[in-house]
Amino acid sequence: MSTIRDILVDSQRRLSNAGVESASTESAQLLAHVLGVPRNRLFMQDSVGEENRVAFERLLAKRLNRVPLQHITGTAPFRRIELNVGPGVFVPRPESELVAEAAIRFLRECQNPIAVDLCSGSGAIALSLALEVPGVRVVGVELSPDSFVWLEQNVNRFECEIPVEIHQMDATDFTASVFSKLSGMCDVVTCNPPYIPIGMTPRDPEVRIHEPTVALYGGSDGLDVIRGIAKTAAMLLKSGGLFVVEHADVQGAEAGDASVVNLLKQLHLDEELETYIPGILGKPFFAEVTDRLDFNQRPRFTMATRV
User: Fold this and answer.
1) Domain co-membership, 58 together with 178
2) Which end of the chain has fewer surrounding CB within 10 Å, N or C?
3) Which residues lie closer than 8 Å to 4 by C-beta, 6 or more apart?
4) Containing domain of residue 128, as a range?
5) 235 and 152, same structural domain?
6) Tens place of pLDDT for every residue, the chain, 307 residues?
7) 70 part of a folded domain
8) How far is CA 44 from the centre of its chain?
9) Are 292 and 301 in contact (CB under 8 A)?
């Protein structure tokens, strides 16, 4: 009979050979999942029965084929919560926790705050706002039917002070009635949009093969969805409101004309928008447009204040 240590040493070696970077951590997470215990409750000398060992081997085989760990366990941690995830929805990343953090800090200083989370996916950001900011009203928007199933499931799992309101719709359609009703009322708009340029192949097979393409690709330069979302954010936000949008590290301020910072600085009221957004033609929508760094000190999200 194998011990936990024996299984972990063997599985870590096999995962490392398959190119999995966090082989040690993932081996322990998989085994803890099979045994139904927290990872910190794995005692190295404990034995593992044949049934659990076989079950572990089945899951390990999936991970060796680069099925995302979160799809295998069915859950993904995000800040203070654990979300249900699986095929069809983008697995939330630690980088997005910083987007949520920036929004939460701002919302806590607002009275009767209202936030809209665009491209909500699993609901990671929307639910974090709702659970960590007392009294906030949060609206989540997701286009993909496959992702919306997970969003709805996760929203229904958590008891928020004010339930998160969700809609299956296009976040770039700033003319939609849902947005019109919130025009000029919102304190914060957050978004983790698709931002990979079409034609660019993600390095990790977990992303390349298993993540939904609708959550990855944002047009020829990766910014098409952000262009549309910026207009929606401009309509939703009150003066002084905050827009927080995630982007690729190559779309930071150093990218110049191809950066999200430049995109937001250049957005202004034109004839297309003036029917829906009051103001003076040619006036910019955003000021104080700055990039923020992720845990690896790479530019990964932009913050902008509505004029």
Assistant:
1) no
2) N
3) 31, 42, 43, 44, 45, 46, 47, 48
4) 75-306
5) yes
6) 789 999 999 999 999 999 998 999 999 999 999 999 988 888 887 899 999 999 999 999 999 999 999 999 999 999 999 999 999 999 999 999 999 999 999 999 999 999 999 999 999 999 999 999 999 999 999 999 999 999 999 999 999 999 999 999 999 999 999 999 999 999 999 999 999 888 787 878 888 888 888 888 888 889 999 999 999 999 999 999 999 999 999 999 999 999 999 999 999 999 989 989 989 999 999 999 999 999 999 999 999 999 9
7) no
8) 35
9) yes
